[in-house]
Amino acid sequence: MATPPLSAATQAFGERVRARRHELGKSQEQLADDCGLHWTFVGQVERGKRNISLHNILKLAGALEIDPGELVRGLRASAI
Q1: Distance, C-alpha 29 to centroid of its chain
Q2: How many CB atoms lie within 10 A of CB 64?
Q3: String of b and e for 12-46 (b: at least 16 CB within 10 Å)?
């Protein structure tokens, strides 16, 4: 049985990462290589299973060629 995302915020963040990755035509493995993270970690982020650090948000945003603010815009702490 699959476990639910940690929160609505982590789920929304992960959906944004996945959508941008798809726009760029990258696999999880390619994205992970581009930002120096493990591909399983990227998968967990995309499924909302990780509450990631600022540094990893910046790494992902850089590899996704997007402003980090786009990944977190509108997310609320109450969703945690």
Answers
A1: 13
A2: 22
A3: bbbebbbebbeeeebebeebbebbebeeebbbbbb
> Whole-structure pTM over 0.85, yes or no?
yes
Helices (H), 4-53: 8-24, 28-35, 39-46
> Over the stretch 13-40, which tens digit does the pLDDT of each residue have?
999 999 999 999 999 999 999 999 999 9
Place of tokens 């509108």: 74
Gap between the Cα atoms of 51 and 33, Å rounded: 20
Rounded CA gap, 3 and 70, in Å?
Answer: 26
- Which burial class, exposed, middle or buried, applies to 48 when counting CB atoms under 10 A from its CB (0-12, 13-18, 19+)? buried
End-to-end CA distance of the chain: 22
